[in-house]
Design a protein that fits this description.
heterodimer, A: mainly alpha, about 0% strand, elongated, B: mainly alpha, 24 helices, protein dimerization activity (chain B), DNA-binding transcription factor activity (chain B), transcription (chain B)
Chain lengths: ~200, ~525
């Protein structure tokens, strides 16, 4: 039973990974497809595991786990997206200055970035000038790390990439927890301690 | 030299019509004129009798210096100018004219010196007099050209001038900016209002249209499409066709250049369809547009200034098929542009700001559509605000799921690690004996290797107490995972599951704490759980 559950978990995760492969044309097509490949899932999964493993000594609170997971996700993004850079920079403080010098355009989410946002939200269009839309765009900017002051188009692109990445992260972590719990279950079941 | 070889080859290709006329001049002279003319008008020369006659007149002017037509003289001046351009470096002629020309033109062309010299000599012989001021105007403009494109451009301009013999040269010269004509040649020249020259050349006379049409093919497809265009040449025999074709080509060219024209607004009502077409310059040639010289000019002015976004929605109006044939030829070789072209739609503003804004708006709407596909349940929603709402909700839910899962992982992982120290003493010795480790699939092989050592030992103690809880947890997870719609179902299920699991975890954690798990850790877990749920 346990093996069946575990075996079911693994193929399901891999199948779900392959199931979602869609080719979308457009600028951000690669954002979606790159996160939906099974290969990416495994890459991320491995990274996540490696990140989680060394936390054996110290109690890894859920926050630490989440941060490790996010860092692994950002690593998997290879720094191509703004949010991934923001996450990585947020994690490693001492390296931030180096990265800032090297990258130039990298900036933390919470800091006041340079006024390099191409177009302030107000000037974009009549509809985008609408208050509601503008507020929501601002909200979205706060949600996505590192995209506080970003133009609408850039923000939307980052959001697309971020959403795809988050979906992959959720999928992988779920599979991981299932596997772990299945393992624990199996271990527990097989080795029923007496008391 | 290379140039000569090139010219010579074209010379042969074009045929023998011109050479005899050219040869009428001095032996030295015939080289340059023929090469010069061949280079620029090879196709048309081959095919068009009228053109050749014009050419011959052109050629003959320097040679014979016909005093009759002012056109001829001006054309001769132009030829001299061109020669001057070519020669800027090389000519050390003593005559004032060449020297003046050399002074005018700064950049040297790579054309062989002797050819230029011959031209210059011709000029000298032909003219005899000081150059007219009007002729000087194009000089500086023609000056800064790189060798071949400049040469061609100059030649193009020259042809334009020749064509417009009826028109005022001064005016024409004014329009002939180097950038303008060079723009026409897709491959090399920067964007410019070639259309302006052409627009100016939108003359009533047959010859200009004729010449310009011929010129256009040459300019546009200098290397490859020339032959096809040449073939097109003879098609346009009638003047009316030429005029319309010229107009359309003008339009196309100007559209290429400026990119921002609205075919609609200033149209004389000819072309109904308006396009929101993305035009690539050669493709635009077939653009329907009617010729508006004024439009050319205005567009020209605007064109240079901005970046435009190219959308490949070219709409070919029912222009004569030959134009489209030309387009097809040109379509594949997209010239490398540093600007992106945008075509304004009918009834929309054409000023720079609105166009740029429209481009941005379209980019944004494109990205919104992409997000719509990504986020489930956004298909029915219309309107940016509501869609953004959905997107925000989705992102928040995803982030919540991740936190939830990370918490779960945290309970699974460090729990075992920490408890390992604590529990090893108590339970390991008990359960160490029988510990078969089932082999899980490779995908979670690493997990297993990790899980085996610390977790199995530690979890056993937990499992005994929370086995049922975990089983229910697993079943919940599997059911959740198998649900098709990840987002909604999972969010709903998670909210339910989290409440259930929270209780379960609390039980587990309490049990763990009892077994010595790490009370701080357990409490923080419960604390977190409470906060989350």
């Amino acid at each position: 039973m346990i093996s069946s559950s575990s075996s079911s978990s693994s193929p399901s995760s891999s199948s779900s990974g392959s199931r979602k492969k869609k080719m979308k044309p457009g600028l951000t097509a690669q954002a979606e497809t790159k996160w939906q490949t099974a290969a990416q899932e495994q890459v991320y999964g491995r990274r996540l595991l490696e990140a989680l493993r060394p936390t054996g000594g110290a109690p890894a609170g859920p926050r630490a786990v989440k941060e490790a997971a996010d860092s692994a996700l950002a690593l998997t993004a290879r720094g191509q997206s703004r949010w991934s850079r923001a996450i990585l920079l947020g994690r490693c403080r001492p390296r931030r200055k180096l990265l800032l010098k090297a990258g130039g355009r990298i900036r933390r989410g919470r800091r006041q970035p340079r006024s390099s946002a191409p177009v302030p939200l107000q000037q974009v269009s009549a509809e985008l000038r609408g208050k509601k839309v503008r507020d929501r765009l601002r909200l979205l900017g706060r949600l996505v790390p590192g995209c506080r002051k970003l133009s609408a188009s850039g923000l939307l692109e980052e959001t697309a990439d971020y959403v795809a990445a988050l979906e992959m992260q959720v999928k992988t972590m779920r599979a991981l927890t299932e596997a772990l719990s299945a393992a624990s279950l199996s271990a527990g079941a097989t080795g029923e301690p007496g008391s | 030299m290379e140039k000569e070889g090139f010219w010579g080859q074209q010379w042969q290709a074009t045929g023998a019509k011109l050479p005899p006329e050219l040869n009428s001049g001095s032996a030295a002279s015939d080289q340059l004129p023929q090469c010069f003319l061949n280079l620029n008008w090879k196709q048309p020369m081959a095919h068009d009798a009228d053109f050749e006659s014009a050419l011959s007149s052109l050629v003959s002017s320097p040679c014979s210096n016909p005093p009759a037509s002012a056109d001829g003289s001006s054309i001769g001046e132009l030829i001299g100018r061109l020669g001057g351009i070519c020669n800027s470096n090389d000519i050390s002629a003593s005559s004032p004219y060449p020297s003046a020309d050399a002074s005018c033109y700064s950049t040297p062309l790579n054309s062989p010196p002797k050819l230029n010299l011959s031209v210059m000599d011709h000029r000298q012989q032909g003219r005899g007099g000081p150059p007219m001021p009007v002729n000087r105007v194009p000089g500086p403009q023609l000056g800064p050209f790189s060798a071949e494109p400049g040469f061609e451009d100059g030649a193009a301009r020259l042809s334009c001038f020749a064509g417009r013999s009826s028109g005022s040269f001064a005016g024409q010269f004014g329009f002939l900016d180097p950038g303008n004509l060079s723009e026409a040649s897709r491959s090399q020249c920067p964007k410019a209002g070639f259309g302006s020259c052409v627009g100016v050349g939108q003359s009533r006379s047959e010859r200009p249209a004729h010449l310009e049409m011929k010129m256009r093919p040459k300019i546009d497809g200098s290397s490859t499409a020339e032959e096809s265009e040449v073939g097109n040449g003879p098609e346009e025999s009638s003047l009316s066709d030429r005029m319309t074709a010229e107009a359309s080509s003008l339009r196309g060219i100007t559209d290429n250049n400026s990119g921002k024209w609205k075919t609609a607004t200033k149209r004389k009502g000819r072309r109904a369809p308006l396009s929101s077409s993305a035009t690539n310059p050669p493709a635009n040639m077939t653009e329907e547009e009617s010729s508006d010289a004024k439009r050319c000019k205005t567009a020209d002015r605007k064109g240079g200034a901005k970046n435009e976004v190219a959308k490949p929605k070219t709409e070919k109006n029912g222009h004569p098929g030959h134009r489209e044939g030309k387009d097809n030829d040109h379509q594949p070789p997209e010239p490398p542009k540093d600007y992106i072209h945008v075509r304004a739609r009918r009834g929309q503003a054409t000023d720079a700001h609105s166009l740029a804004e429209r481009v941005r708006r379209e980019k944004i709407s494109k990205r919104m559509k992409f997000l719509q596909d990504l986020v489930p349940g956004c298909n029915k929603v219309t309107g940016k605000a509501v869609m953004l709402d959905e997107i925000i909700n989705y992102v928040q839910s995803l982030q919540r799921q991740i936190e939830f899962l990370s918490m779960k992982l945290a309970t699974l992982n460090p729990q075992t690690d920490v408890s390992m120290e604590n529990l090893l003493r108590k339970d390991i010795y008990q359960s160490r004996g029988p510990m078969p480790q089932p082999v899980f699939p490779a995908e979670i092989g690493t997990v297993l290797s990790y899980a085996h050592q610390p977790q199995t030992i530690a979890l056993q103690s937990i499992v005994t107490s929370g086995l049922e809880a975990q089983f229910s947890l697993n079943s919940l997870q599997s059911s959740l995972r198998q649900s098709q719609s990840l987002q909604h179902a999972t969010t709903d299920a998670y909210t339910d599951a989290s409440s259930q699991l929270g209780g379960l975890w609390e039980d587990d954690l309490q049990n763990v704490a009892q077994t010595g798990f790490g009370q701080n850790h357990g409490q923080t877990h419960t604390g977190h759980l409470k906060i989350e749920l």
